[in-house]
Amino acid sequence: MTYRAGVIGTGGIAGMGILGMHDEEAIGTEKIDASHAGGYASTDEIELVAVADVDEEKLATFGSAWDIPPERQYVGHEAMLAEEDLDVVSICTPSFLHHEHTIDAAQSAADPAVIWCEKPIASQVSAAEEMVEVCTETDTELVVNHSFRFTDKLQRLHNLIHEQNILGEVKSVGTQYRMELMRNSTHVLDTLVYLLDARAAQVSGYITGENEAVDSLDATQDVIDAGGGGHVVMDDGSFVTVDCTIPREMSSMTLNFIGTEGKLYMNNDDGEWRYWSLEDGDHVERSLPGIDGAWTWEDDYKRSFANAATHIQDILNGEEENYSPGVEAARSLEIIVGFYLSHYTGSTVDIPLAQPLREIPITSW
User: Fold this and answer.
1) Are 104 and 76 in contact (CB under 8 A)?
2) Separation of alpha carbons 165 and 184, rounded Å
3) Which of 31, 60, 90, 109 has the CB geometry, 3.0–4.6 Å to 36, for a possible disulfide?
4) To the nearest 5 percent, what fractions of the chain are helix, strand and coil?
């Protein structure tokens, strides 16, 4: 059978290219495969049939690039959700709109079985929690596009850590990624909570106030999102340092795990993953069983959109359970919000956040 997909928001991640990932000359002018639309196009059973945006010019450009007929290019998401019968809806709008658009889609006449929402899940923790709650009530699967979860290598590594215990009890993790906590660093924090299978317990943060992308992205509203980081004590007792203060040209996505049975170094920009087993008091370098070759941009990151769309197809077919659910995406968001709260109050912040703190928004795009 063929499943019907609709997209809300015709910006870069929907199918027209994004800053830092694609050639700037191509962004906004031609279709880009490493995108939601490109992911659907790579599947056998999902067809992109409708698109919505409030910007009519961008809507027409996207529709032309991805062969969406004019009658299925909707000005405003409400019109698309009222007129179309959809199996899956992509939310590709700025993060401060994810809450509204996800809930509207879940409760709409379009009645999607799956919502594929861009990261970060939302701008405030309470919004993320409501998105999860409404999707549960409407029997809608909420899949959040934390791209690294959709790669075979990271899924295999998760298995090695939790099923084969290659690290033992993780005591310490050091992470580094490029500037801007919401826009970029949600990826490294989601990878952290995924591989640890843990949630933050206490957060101490530092915010630089720097944002290298606002001008390039031509943001239409004030953006709080900035570089930063801090210390996190996870509920499994592991101690984590996070450094997301470094500009794109200088940075790498790195994670360094120290456990009672071994240590692991991951660098997704240089493509280097290394593992050492602790044997009789010495660290001995070993291969990672079942993980062949280096992490690469082409095979592991750009393919993640196709992998995610295939995963959604499998969910629709009842063949897989969601491995990037909203409830887990909220874990990286609460760390980021905790960093801001800690920085501006000069205090350590407990997770879960107290109710008033769950309402504080960190605007991105």
Assistant:
1) no
2) 29
3) 90
4) 40, 25, 40
